[in-house]
Automatic annotation (TrEMBL):
Name the UniProt record assigns to this protein: Large ribosomal subunit protein bL12 C-terminal domain-containing protein
InterPro entries per record: Ribosomal_bL12_C (IPR013823), Ribosomal_bL12_C/ClpS-like (IPR014719)
GO BP, one annotated term: translation
High-level lineage: Bacteria, Pseudomonadati, Planctomycetota, Planctomycetia, Kolteriales
TM regions (residue ranges): 69-88
GO terms for MF: structural constituent of ribosome
Residue ranges of domain Large ribosomal subunit protein bL12 C-terminal in the record: 27-54
Keyword Membrane included in the entry's annotation: yes
Keyword terms: Membrane, Transmembrane, Transmembrane helix
Length: 89
């Protein structure tokens, strides 16, 4: 397991830990995982688990994919409306 770069007081103990936390707060989980891997030499699974543990410890929710799904549905509806209007005209 990768060492948690945070102290018991929930504060970063090094600049990398602060950067991981900042990335998570910005919703950039993949970049946070890459950073952990670069600085620890951990594998992908281990780094992902460490980043997820840090996020959970600090109450950072994973970014929602609902926005992407809603956008896709909106585009599909617009295309369907366009087809119907074209067929009626």
């Amino acid at each position: 397991m990768v060492d948690d770069p945070f102290s018991e007081e929930d504060g970063p103990t090094d600049p990398v830990g602060q950067e991981v936390l900042d990335l998570l707060r910005e919703g950039r989980k993949i970049q946070a995982i890459k950073l952990v891997r670069e600085h620890t030499g951990a594998g992908l699974k281990e780094a992902k688990e460490a980043v997820e543990a840090i996020a959970a410890k600090h109450g950072i929710e994973p970014p929602s994919s609902q926005g992407c799904a809603a956008s896709a549905i909106f585009v599909a509806i617009c295309i369907a409306i366009g087809i119907v209007v074209a067929l009626i005209s």
